[in-house]
Amino acid sequence: MLLEDARQPALSAHAFTELLAEHMPQVGKAGLTVEEMGFGTCRIRLPVGADDLRAGGTISGPTMFSMADLALYGAVLSRIGPVALAVTSTMTITFLRKPGVKPLVAEGRVIRMGRRLAYGEISLFSEGEEEPVAHATGSYAIPSGAAGG
Fold first, then answer.
1. Which residue from 43, 40, 59, 30 is spatially nearest to 133, judged by alpha carbons?
2. Cα separation, 60 vs 3, whole angstroms
3. Measured between alpha carbons, how far is 125 from 93 in angstroms, rounded to an integer?
4. What pLDDT is stored for residue 124 in this prediction?
């Protein structure tokens, strides 16, 4: 569950979905949905299909990494607004346990927001389970002149 902040997000779930459709159409093809945006938080969900699996019947690392990256991107944009040119600067993921072959949920939150760099963390869960399957941290470079902060 994402932590609540009384401030309104600078970008809604619908607006983030539209931004992704315009600038990253491959995300929509994967079936990803933006479930929730808060101020500095983002929750996304991916229905897992055969293309997301690897040997051993588990969700692939690249699928989980992509989810983490997108959840942090959404969390950052929820603070600064629709800045399509904000880009991943660093991302580290730790795989904690084998995820179930069911929808994957990623919850991202901004921990530190600067003028040019945002830092945050992401937890990934198999839908309906409390224990995370992966944890990631990362930073986003924010172009000069971007709103928010």
1. 59
2. 28
3. 13
4. 98
Strands 117-126 and 104-113: antiparallel
- Side chain identity at 46, as an amino acid letter? L
Query: Maximum CA pair distance of the chain?
Result: 47
Is 132 strand, coil or helix? Answer: coil
By CB atoms closer than 10 A (0-12, 13-18, 19+), residue 38 is buried
pTM of the entire structure? 0.92
What pLDDT, in 10s, does the model give residues 44-75?
A: 999 988 888 888 889 999 999 999 999 999 99
Regions in the chain scoring below 70 on pLDDT: 1-4, 147-149
Q: Phi-psi category of 57—alpha, beta or left, where left has phi over 0 and alpha has psi -120 to 50?
A: left
Collect contacts of 26-35 with beta carbons under 8 A, ≥24 apart. 27/70, 32/67, 32/70, 34/74, 35/105
**Residue type for 29, please?**
K
